[in-house]
Amino acid sequence: MSDLQQEAQRLDAASGLRAEAQRLDAADPLAGHRAKFALDDATVYLDGNSLGALPAHVPARLADVIGREWGELRIRSWDESGWWTAPERIGDRIAPLVGAAPGQIVVGDSTSVNVFKAVVAAARLAEEGRDEILVDGTTFPTDGYIAESAARMTGHRIVPLDPADIPAAAGPRTALALVNHVDYRSGRLHDLPGTTAALHAAGALAVWDLCHSAGALPVGLDAHGVDLALGCTYKYLNGGPGSPAYLYVAERHQGRFDSPLPGWTSHADPFAMTPGYRAAEGAVRGRVGTPDILSMLALEAALDVWDGVAIDAVRAKSLALTDFFLECVRAYVPEGRVTPVTPEAHGERGSQVALRCADAPAVMPELVKRGVVGDLRRPDILRFGFTPLYVGFADAERAAGILADVLAGTPGRL
Hints:
Elements: H1 3-27, E1 44-45, H2 58-73, H3 77-80, H4 86-94, E2 105-107, H5 111-125, E3 132-136, H6 141-154, E4 157-161, H7 166-169, E5 174-180, H8 192-201, E6 205-209, E7 228-231, E8 246-249, H9 293-302, H10 311-332, E9 339-340, E10 352-356, H11 360-369, E11 372-373, E12 375-377, E13 381-385, H12 393-408
Parallel strand pairs: 1-11, 3-4, 3-5, 5-6, 6-7
Antiparallel strand pairs: 2-8, 7-8, 9-10, 10-13, 12-13
Helix pairs in contact: 1-10, 1-12, 2-9, 4-9, 5-6, 10-12
């Protein structure tokens, strides 16, 4: 086939895929939610798995928090504006998105701090004689660092494993396993129900990191019997840079949940200011210090975009978007230039597409320059996150076309 014929074939494919994108966007029941975010049409934003887009109404809410609640009411806002109860109230807003009943999630601190709380507390909940902690060997680095520190403090040993090997490895010495629900680099979705069941069969506890799954797909914490879980809120939940994380403690464990960070706000009577610590009841035990009110209330406002949204609908669109993007990549990108790392199987895929590319460190900055914002995971991964509330099928097609142009060294779109 001549170069001219190849180009004609490529243009035909582009025309068909653009028409398909328009059809899919017109039929998308979530398409209207894009208008709720501060986005422009000049950019295809595919980095919501690092930092979610700003919900458009949040600045006005924060202006009220700063100007009226802090500026006018001042200290009275702890009671009159509901600041004191925000960690539990916002936790209950997140609960339906991860399949949890009310009263089991508290918001506050960073993901790293909540990993520490969860791992140490799970080690303390485990039966006597269980001295090993299984960890996802491919985990986000901080989870591994924190788990190692927690193991040193509690006298446990760390056993790093591929997540697929954890069910078979759990045994009579296993206290708990710490696993990422979705791998941050590849986008692989790990088997939360099966792994949790295998850990329980071995007498161990399951601790899950939901950073890359909450807000993108159903989690089912209660339905699958998860013991403890945690996650950030600045990715698919759109809470803002550095927004507070959350901690899930299953109701059945709350009475014995022994936090390694017993701060004053988790005390049964915090304002008594007594020297002895007595833990509060329920998920409040997961609190530590004074809540970070400005970022917490920005998160609370951001969660309004989820009103009336079913997580199953989000998952359906996520899979359709990533399928379509991969189809466009196969049609547009010169053969051999990229290799998908994200699994093709729906049951093994989160809400991102990772492409291995030898030139990735040079390609991603050029993509950003041309209006496609993804991110680079060194040494050779181009990572594209698909947030169904605001990413459309035309976005996916456009991103694949610009990727092809960059890789082919052409200056414009197909």
